[in-house]
Amino acid sequence: MKKIVFLFTGLMIVLGAAAKPKATATTGVSEPAVDRRVELMTIVARLAGYPEYQSKFTPAYTDSLDAWFAPYKEHPAVEYMRMMREKTGLSYNAVPIMGVYLTDPPHLCPRLPLTEMQPESRWGVKYGTKFIKLLNKFYKEARCEEFFARQDSLFTQVEKAFGDVFAELDTEWYARFFGTKVEGGMIPIVGMAFGGANYGGHIVYPDSTVDQYAFMGSWWMKHGGQPLFNRTWFFNTIVHEFNHSYVNPILEGDLRLEIPKQKLFELEADHMRNAAYPNGRTVLNETFVRAAVIRYLMDHKADSATIAREMWEQIDRHFVWMPEAVELLGEYEADREKYPDFRSFTPRIAEFCNETAAQIDTIRARRAAEKERMKANALHVIAIEPFGNGAQDVDPKLTEITIRFDKPLVGRGYAFNAGPGGEATLFKFDVKNYSKDKTALTLAVELEPNHEYELVVLHGLSFVTPEGIHMLEDYLVKFRTRAE
Questions:
Q1: In angstroms, rounded to a whole number, what is the distance separating the alpha carbons of residues 108 and 132?
Q2: Cα–chain-centroid distance for residue 452?
Q3: Residues near 344 by beta carbon (within 8 Å), at least 6 away in sequence
Q4: What is the reported pLDDT for 162?
Q5: Cα(382)–Cα(401) distance, rounded to whole angstroms?
Q6: DSSP codes joined into one string, 381-426
């Protein structure tokens, strides 16, 4: 990342406008990076109690973070972020996008003037200006420069682990598929404390070029610092986040979609709200961003099992109309003379929303029948060893837990999450190894006495057989250790 140097006289720092804004966006796909500005923002959000930034998925980092910054939970910058969550709904993607809007530390100021929409509408000029002043104060008083210096080797290790995944991305596909080219760069940022979440964002420059950001958090870390991630799922997430750069501006700017997209949202409103998709705008964007990921896989000759897994991943997230949306984009691809770009296709998208709302009972019945046909041959967890799942007297001195499946797996991937009890019930573990016959995965664990534990074995892309057979539902491991 290029460093922009600003000269200041005394303490006269103008934060409402950038000293000399960078004239244009980057070009091409940048190397994946751990960005200290983004880490700084997530640290303050974590101290402010933002639930989405309380992850312990990267203990080699978050344990150090929590210990270092514990004395600063009541710092004015932290208190200000607490206030902003209440007042403006500051959360999720609005946190990291402010980071990349700033110059590199130790002197943090906007690279471009703050507006009511940039870096994100929940900041605004008034709140953003005040916060940046407090953030500079926090950076100095909490000795952030020293903390980050101690993390350099870990950051380098993480960046190296993800580098070759991003290199596989066909960036020219976006212009081919959407029929337009966004002038600017694609910048992947690997978040150290995103907690499994991924976000998108962008910065528009005065010459109308755009830097598109993919803030990536879909990964774990062994206690020794080694990153763990499912390569396929991570790659698909990259495609997903950059799709937003093309889909969102077109669908959000078409008034013909206002009523149809609300109809689509109402079909799964409760589930979508729970997933932080609170309105028709976000649900319509997510529908076609996700459908475009599947078209990307198809265009790049992914095998049928990979495509099916991605399709069902979206159906299980309550986009029950996903196969129909993918088919609709196939219609778009098949007639580019009629539809030269994605914008010209929006009338068909409006029709799709109306048709889906009218036929939702038929669509749901179709999905249910498809799932029943798949269940007979699906992959299942058949045992948790050396105790039975649900046991209430597990030995707290146990050092290994084995998850056994009913079919041999490929034996390369794994994906877990915290259970309903959150990270308070998630035990410390490292992935040890697959069995020789690839039917079992052993975890090295650390348990405490008299404690309730949960772990979700995630279905989808990670646990899969060589034939592409996978789990259809998540599997909850739940047990309690006995008192010593």
A1: 7
A2: 28
A3: 179, 338
A4: 85
A5: 14
A6: EEEEESS-TT-S-B-TT--EEEEEESS----S---EE--TTGGGGP
Say what the alpha-carbon torsion angle 155, 157, 162, 163 is, to the nearest 10 degrees: 100
Cα–Cα distance, 266 to 280 (Å, whole number):
8
Using a 10 angstrom Cβ sphere, with 0-12 exposed, 13-18 middle and 19 or more buried, the burial of residue 58 is buried
SS3 (DSSP) at 147: helix
- Can you state the angle between helices 124-141 and 144-167, rounded to 10 degrees? 110
Q: How many CB atoms lie within 10 A of CB 365?
A: 10
Helix (H) or strand (E) holding 454: strand 452-457
Q: What is the pTM of this model?
A: 0.72
Question: What is the 3-state composition of the chain as percent helix, strand, coil, each rounded to the nearest 5?
Answer: 45, 15, 40
Token code pair at residue 412: 């390369």
**Contact, 240 vs 290, CB < 8 A?**
yes
The dihedral region occupied by 10, where left means phi > 0, alpha psi between -120 and 50, and beta the remainder, is left
pLDDT at 218: 63
Give the phi and the psi of residue 280 in degrees, each rounded to 5: -65, -35
What are the φ/ψ torsions at residue 113 (nearest 5 degrees)? -60, 140
Phi, psi of 481 (to 5 degrees): -85, 150
DSSP 3-state of 342: helix
Strand order in the sheet with 428-434: 381-385, 400-405, 440-446, 428-434
How is the beta sheet containing 475-480 ordered, strand by strand?
416-417, 452-457, 475-480
**Cis peptide bond N-terminal to 32, omega within 30:** no
Q: Which two tokens stand for residue 259?
A: 């009523």
| C-beta pairs of 332-338 under 8 Å, 24+ apart in sequence | 333/177, 333/295, 336/179
The partner residues of 429 in beta bridges, in order of sequence, read 445
pLDDT for the residue numbered 6: 33
Q: Which residues pair with 417 in a beta bridge?
A: 456
> Quick one: how far is CA 28 from the chain centroid?
21
Residues in the chain where the model's pLDDT stays below 70: 1-23, 218, 222-225, 461
pLDDT at residue 223, rounded to an integer: 58
Q: What integer pLDDT is reported at residue 294 of this predicted model?
A: 98
Cα distances (angstroms) measured from residue 203 to each of 130, 199, 391: 20, 14, 51
Give 335's contacts (C-beta < 8 A, 6+ positions apart).
none
Do residues 52 and 275 lie in contact, with contact meaning Cβ atoms separated by under 8 Å? no
Helix H or strand E segment including 240: helix 231-252
Determine the Cα–Cα distance for residues 81 and 135; give it in Å rounded to an integer: 10
> Of 208, 264, 247, which is closest to residue 345 (Cα–Cα)?
247
**Among candidates 112, 99, 207, which has minimal Cα distance to 148?**
99
Cβ pair 390, 438 in contact under 8 A: no
Q: How many CB atoms lie within 10 A of CB 235?
A: 19
